# Entry
Amino acid sequence: MLLFLVVASSSLQAETLFGQVIGVGDGDTVTVLDANKQSYHVRLTGIDAPERKQPFGDRSKQALRALVFGKQVEVEWHKRDRYDRLIGKLLVAKPGNACAGDHCPRTLDVSLSQIEAGLAWHYKKYAKEQASEDRMQYAEAEDTARAKHLGLWSDHDPLPPWEWRKPSLK
# Structure
């Protein structure tokens, strides 16, 4: 039993990946290349963005690309999904930051930015995996974006990707 608790608690601890974003798959998935030239597919934690063929799918991907492509990032990840992607919080330097080079502080939470722009949903199904502060910020950001009719919330009845992916709805 003790061994189980040690293994279980160690799997909850986040690891950190540093690298450069070399690809953007959609509004919640990127590819990061580390200093050893190893690439990692990263699924942004806490959000689910519209699929490419959904309304706002391309716009969500473009916004993510503008925010992170070619930039140095930090990924605080805690697990892999069934596709072997890292599930993590992606941090990047804030746009317009006056510092130079690759050593700028990476303090902008990319998932939160996608929600604030109305280009992703807070993925509440996995909210328990988030830090309580992140969970609260993401939920508030979604409520604000919805109230302001930003992005996908300008649609009369936006369909969440987890519903859109159901075979009967495609």
Summary: The longest helix spans residues 132-147. The longest strand covers residues 15-26. The chain is about 30% helix and 25% strand.
